[in-house]
Amino acid sequence: MEEVILPGILLTILIGIAYLTGRVADGVHDRALKRDESLLPRQVLDSGSNIPGDIKLHDTAMVTGKVVIAEDRFRNLLARLRIFVGGRLSAHEASITRAKREAMLRLRTNAKGASHIIGIRFDSTQLSRGMIEMIVSGTALYTDHRPKGGFPSALPDDGVNISHRNLLIEFLSASTAFLLICWGIYAASGLLVEWASHEISVEDEVAIWSQLEPELINHHRTADDRSLAENYLVDLINSIPKTALGPAAAYDFDVVIVPDPTPNAAALPGGLILVHTGMIDLVESENELLSILGHEIGHYNGRDHLEGLGREVVGVALSAMMFQTDAVLTTWIAGWPKLLTDLDYSRSQELDADNWSLKILMAKYGHVGEVARTFEKLGNMQGGHSVMDYLATHPHPQDRVDRLYKMARDQNLPMGEPVDLEEAFEDFLVRTGEIPESAREEGRKFSLTTTKD
Amino acid sequence: MSTTKNSTAPMPAVTVSYIPGREASENLGIVFGSSVRSRNFLFDIFAAFKNLFGGEVRSYTRLLDDAQSEATSRMLEQAKKLDADAVVDVHFATSQVAYKAAEIFAYGTAVRLK
């Protein structure tokens, strides 16, 4: 949650500052324009190229007026929301009109002493995002003629060219429309992704994923590439009776141990399970470790890993489409789908995965001892229930502990003695010939996280 | 000298420097109108697809159409404020003020007719 709320607040403050400074700059520029325009001498301005016949011409000169005006961040954002939704960009209208008046003012200042400026042409380009360049050019005629009266002294009032709408109201309506559209797309794509993730077979998933991430897929990693601890974990998964695995039996599982102190594990497409060293340090028995792995295998059975990934892709695509290269916004918005995914993962899918964990433990050991031990520890680390639990990414660990024990009771599953993790690992090392049988009697300790190859 | 004004008739706007058959009596200076518009994201996506196959991008043509008529009517509105009879030497300029948004800018010289 924090990673979304905090930058969100910062971004709001930044945009608020941009709004205020933008308004101040607007006002200052507007007043300066009015003052300078009123000081200009009278000149005949003509977008045509006819030199009046009734005047005595002394001299001609080409004159230009140029200005580059930058949009403030607030308007920029507003414009982008508006572009997504469609319609008139009133935020840009005001600044582009001021740019024209300023360019015209400079043209006429440059043509000081001229009575006519003919052949006036405007040209504007976008220099970079939010920067408008305006060039106005013309031919100044220096004559005896002194224009008087009439209106041609200044560019006419800009009231016509600007839709007078409050920018904040405009912002609110545009962003509401934008959010509704995004939500609609996201919900629709969520349904699509859910359908697709259940339709795609394990073989197809592995085939697709091996194209995308060849180095992560297990048939590119042999036992030699893995560390001893990883080999042990793969061996542990393969020792589960295939019938207990459900659809996930089709995977050729691989485990990667990630050096990260937070107790966590994740299921990636293609049967790749990530386990943090923090999780391995937390578990004490093989049963407990398998309950975690079984939970991840449960996610494969629920096809949850594909759904989450699909949604993330949709979310990132959506934000990239909207904000293109705006780094701050894109990274902030890209965080949203991930959060939403996790939220979605939580309630039903996590609990389904817990069911698989129970089933797998039962099949492997004939009892479900220690099935909830890790959650108990996590619960103690996290403390009691709080308001944030309703928003948290996972169900509160203590709830899962209670639920797992209740399920075990309901199904009359026995609770047995756990297998010590270090002993199990040593058994594995002896079995695979990594250490001689004698090493065990010497009392050397082998730990999963400290033993490297 | 002065003509009877019909307020319901549209003010003539031409791209040459005179109104055919009439003579200008007074130059009132530059008038302009601009319009910045965008289509919504759906049209943007359609346009991107169209870019694959080529051909006219109708949704953007309509965008330019709308923007152009708005810019012209805003220019005429300014001319009306100056009590002009016509706008001559009208030019159009387009620019991309923001990604996927178009500005159409119309400007000309407001004149009074004899």
From TrEMBL, chain A:
<keyword id="KW-0479">Metal-binding</keyword>
<dbReference type="InterPro" id="IPR035439">
    <property type="entry name" value="UPF0145_dom_sf"/>
</dbReference>
<keyword id="KW-0812">Transmembrane</keyword>
<dbReference type="GO" id="GO:0046872">
    <property type="term" value="F:metal ion binding"/>
</dbReference>
<feature type="transmembrane region" description="Helical">
    <location>
        <begin position="171"/>
        <end position="193"/>
    </location>
</feature>
<keyword id="KW-0862">Zinc</keyword>
<protein>
    <submittedName>
        <fullName>Peptidase M48</fullName>
    </submittedName>
</protein>
<dbReference type="Pfam" id="PF01435">
    <property type="entry name" value="Peptidase_M48"/>
</dbReference>
<feature type="domain" description="Peptidase M48">
    <location>
        <begin position="247"/>
        <end position="407"/>
    </location>
</feature>
<keyword id="KW-0472">Membrane</keyword>
<keyword id="KW-1133">Transmembrane helix</keyword>
<dbReference type="GO" id="GO:0004222">
    <property type="term" value="F:metalloendopeptidase activity"/>
</dbReference>
<dbReference type="GO" id="GO:0016020">
    <property type="term" value="C:membrane"/>
</dbReference>
<dbReference type="GO" id="GO:0051603">
    <property type="term" value="P:proteolysis involved in protein catabolic process"/>
</dbReference>
<dbReference type="InterPro" id="IPR002765">
    <property type="entry name" value="UPF0145_YbjQ-like"/>
</dbReference>
<comment type="similarity">
    <text>Belongs to the UPF0145 family.</text>
</comment>
<feature type="transmembrane region" description="Helical">
    <location>
        <begin position="6"/>
        <end position="25"/>
    </location>
</feature>
<keyword id="KW-0645">Protease</keyword>
<keyword id="KW-0378">Hydrolase</keyword>
<dbReference type="InterPro" id="IPR001915">
    <property type="entry name" value="Peptidase_M48"/>
</dbReference>
<keyword id="KW-0482">Metalloprotease</keyword>
<dbReference type="Pfam" id="PF01906">
    <property type="entry name" value="YbjQ_1"/>
</dbReference>
From TrEMBL, chain B:
<dbReference type="InterPro" id="IPR002765">
    <property type="entry name" value="UPF0145_YbjQ-like"/>
</dbReference>
<protein>
    <recommendedName>
        <fullName>UPF0145 protein COO92_10445</fullName>
    </recommendedName>
</protein>
<comment type="similarity">
    <text>Belongs to the UPF0145 family.</text>
</comment>
<dbReference type="Pfam" id="PF01906">
    <property type="entry name" value="YbjQ_1"/>
</dbReference>
<dbReference type="InterPro" id="IPR035439">
    <property type="entry name" value="UPF0145_dom_sf"/>
</dbReference>
